[in-house]
Amino acid sequence: MGNNQKKPIRELLIIGNKTYQNITNDILNPIKNKAGNLWWIALFISLLAFIWGLFCIIYTIGTGIGVWGLNKTINWAWDITNFVWWVGIGHAGTLISAVLLLFRQKWRLSINRSAEAMTIFAVIQAGLFPIIHMGRPWNAHWVLPIPNQFGSLWPNFNSPLLWDVFAISTYFSVSTVFWFMGLIPDFAMIRDRVTDPIQKKIYGILSFGWGGTSKDWQRFEELSLILAGLCTPLVFSVHTIVSFDFSTSLIKGWHSTIFPPYFVAGAIFSGFAMVQTLLGVARKTLSLESYITRNHIEYMNIIILLTGGIVLLAYISEFILAWYSSNPFESYIYFSINASKGPFWWAFWILIICNILIPQFLWIKYIRRSFFWSYIIAIIINIGMWFERFDIIVLNLSHDYLPSSWTGFIPSFVDVGIFIGTIGFFFFLYLLYIRTFPVISQSEIKTILKDSKKIINFKKNSIMNQHHE
């Protein structure tokens, strides 16, 4: 046997010697059976956080934006940081689903459903912050170009803030359709197997009369490719437009042409880290160890390493530009020597440690394939990416062009409460989702079952041949 035949082409993506029936049962059981203790504990914690956040939102609306830690210099701080962070997290979902589908990457099949749901839930959290920041959320519809009784009252089409509205709403709409369309065959599978009449009725409506005929599958696959083609440019457009909020301004440290690609890479970096976090929750609470394997974790860690490298390159560029310009105000931007020893030095060093130093451990194969360490590093990256957005916004605003207005920022308990509340809301939605919707596409995962069995047989034959030799 030649050397080229001794190694399989790819690693196993399904373990446990599963059959087609096993796959159906494993994906159906979390919906049919009662939830485990882990799921209930996670739901309770997320619900508590959500209620606290809801109270803080109601308090803000009832009292006014003055309860936040803002001041006349830093009038964008915590809320916009959260907005950009959540939009970034929503990025990787469509990337995994659409881009990897176009590239025919089979390893996406166990994780794409969680990633797609993450996109929708994260964009919902992101959308809350501009609405709350208005102070009068009941007038939020004014950001849309709709006819009104006040005459020619239109939003400013020259403002990138309006472009945000169009970009994010388009992204949300297309991602939702893409996500729901992929669920239809699985809804039909549940409809045919549940015995409860109410569940059967609900899943019957959701499945849109799916019959599983060859014509259904042909249309399903064609539509999947069309939607993937539509979603792919949106992946790059949404966070590029979010970066325009900053790069089109005159604020030093913001008017940077590197922001669009830098924001997109950072969004994918943080988005994949959040997918890792969600997969850890789904894997443990739903017992999906056979479908979310070390190989899936390793592939995602490789993408995290790649995008983390791009983000590091952007950091270096920002630092060199600030130093080379010799502009005294540029020396206070978020990535500069003064940032490392100024009043926000702690935020600067948390960014360095979480986004640059800690992810380098993923170069070690043992850590890259470890569930535990990957989970820890993913959480650290999410923390680091939040501080990156905080540094970009708060550090640059705190030392503007008028030294007499230089000031600091201290978040209020309302700021912190709303942010934690959105995290609770996000996980609350996700936990409900994994108990009611199939979290893995059973129809698609079955298409790679034969490949997995071939690899198993190949390995067995290789071991037997080695013994004979």
Summarize the structure in words:
With 469 residues, the protein is mostly helical. It is 68% helix and 0% strand. The chain contains 17 helices and no strands. The protein has helices at 20-32, 37-63, 78-89, 91-102, 112-133, 160-193, 197-206, 214-247, 259-285, 294-325, 337-341, 345-357, 365-368, 371-398, 413-436, 442-445, 449-468. The radius of gyration is 24 Å and the shape is globular.
SSE layout and pairing:
Elements (H helix, E strand, L loop, with lengths): L19 H13 L4 H27 L14 H12 L1 H12 L9 H22 L26 H34 L3 H10 L7 H34 L11 H27 L8 H32 L11 H5 L3 H13 L7 H4 L2 H28 L14 H24 L5 H4 L3 H20 L1
Helix pairs in contact: 2-15, 3-5, 3-9, 3-14, 4-5, 4-8, 4-9, 5-6, 5-15, 6-7, 6-8, 8-9, 9-10, 9-14, 12-14
